[in-house]
Amino acid sequence: MGFVIRRMIFSLLVFGVLCNMGGSFARAEEMHVDAHAAILMDAETGQVYFAYNADRRNLPASLTKLMTAIIAVENSKPGEVAVVSKKAANVSMGSTIHLDEGDRITMGNLLKAALITSANDSTVAIAEHVAGSEEAFIYQMNRKAFTIGALGTRYANTNGYYDPGHYTTAYDLGLIARYALEKPRINSLVRVKGTTVKWINPPEREKEITNTNRLLRNDQMPGADGVKTGSTPRAGNCLIASATRGDRRLIAVVLHAKDRYEETVKMLEYGFNEVRPVVIFPAGGEMARVKVKEGIESSVTATVADPVRVNIARDQCQNIQLKVKLDENLKAPVREGQLVGHAEFTVQGYPLTKVPLVAVKEVQPENLFARLMFLLSK
C-alpha cells in the first residue's frame, strides 16, 4: 500500500509540472462562486471542470421540473390531451398558467408551460395524465434519478415546492440536465425565449409566456441555450444554465446563489476560456512498478503507451488525484506492452480519465526451460 501511495504523490507532482508547462493557458486565478453549491460540467462527456459543495444536499426548487419533463417525454406524445383535475386546478402558489378543472390541453402545451414559464399547476396535470396520480409519477421520477446516477436526489413533488423529503445536489442536477438535453423535445423547449400556450377547451383560450431564464433574453452570456431556473424562499435563487460555442456545450449549476446569472456566466466563461487540452502524464513515464512472479526480474515498470491528455483548467491541476490498480498475479513471461493494470485519474473526486497501464519492457521467466520456450515463441 505504501509503495502505491508514493507513486501517487510522485505522479501528482508531475501533473503540476506538466500543467504549468502549458503555454496556451491564460493566467488563471482560482475559481470562486458565491453560492451554496455549484458545478461546471461538459454536456457531452460529463467531465467536471469545477465543483463547489457539489455533493452537498440542497433544495432544487423548480429545477425539479427537468425531471418532470424527462418522465413526460419518455411516457407521452405531444399531441396527447390531458384533462385538468381539481387537484391540478387548485395549485396556486408560485408561477401558474391558471388551469381550471375540466380544461383540455395537450401534453405539448403543458410541457411548454412547465419548462418555459415554470408553471406549477402544469406539472401536476402532466403527472396525473402520465401516471394516473401525482404519487405514481413521483415514484417514476425517483426511479429515473437512480437510473441516471443521481443518487443524492429524492423527489416528493413534481414542481419543487418545499418538502423535507425533497432534495438534490449540484452534481446530480448536472447529470439530470445532461440526460434531459439529450431529449430533442426538452432541448428545443429550454432555449425558447417566448411562445404561446394554447388550450383545446376552452377553444379560444391561449396565454403568452416568456422564459424565466434571463440569459436567453440578453447578451450576458453569448451562446446561452438553456436550461431552467428555480426559486423559493428556502432554496434561494437557483439556475441550471447551458451554453454552446463551436462544438463545445457546457452546463453550469448554481444553488442558492447570490446572483445566479452572474455566477453561472462566470463558470461558463471559465470553462470556455480556461479549460484547455493538456498532457498530464507522458508516454513511457514510470507510473508504478508491478511485481512479477517467477521472472528473472522481480518487477517491471508500468507505464502508459500514449500521453494522457485531458481537458482541464490550470488551476485545477493541483486537484488531480491518481488511483493505480495493478495486476497482483502477474507471472513471467511478461511481454513489452502487455496490459498490467489501469490508472484512474480524478479531479476533485470526479472522474477525469481511465487509461490502461502496460509493461515498459519484457521480463523473461526465471526457469531456464521456460525462458527458452519463451524466446522460441517470439
Shape: elongated
Radius of gyration: 26 Å
Number of domains: 2
Number of strands: 16
Proportion of residues in helical segments: 25-40%
In CATH, the topology of the largest domain is named Beta-lactamase
Distance between the termini: 35 Å
Strand order of the largest sheet: 2-1-9-8-7
Overall residue-averaged pLDDT value? 90
Sheet having the most strands: 5 strands, antiparallel
CATH homologous superfamily designation of the largest domain: DD-peptidase/beta-lactamase superfamily
Question: What's the tally of helices?
Answer: 10
Structural class: alpha+beta
Report the uncertain regions. 1-7, 21-28
Could you give the order of the helices and strands? HEEHEHEHHHHHEEEEEHEEEEEEEH
CATH-level-2 architecture of the largest domain: 3-Layer(aba) Sandwich
Task: Give the tags.
alpha+beta; Peptidoglycan synthesis regulatory factor (PBP3), Domain 2; 2 domains; five-stranded antiparallel β-sheet; 30% helix
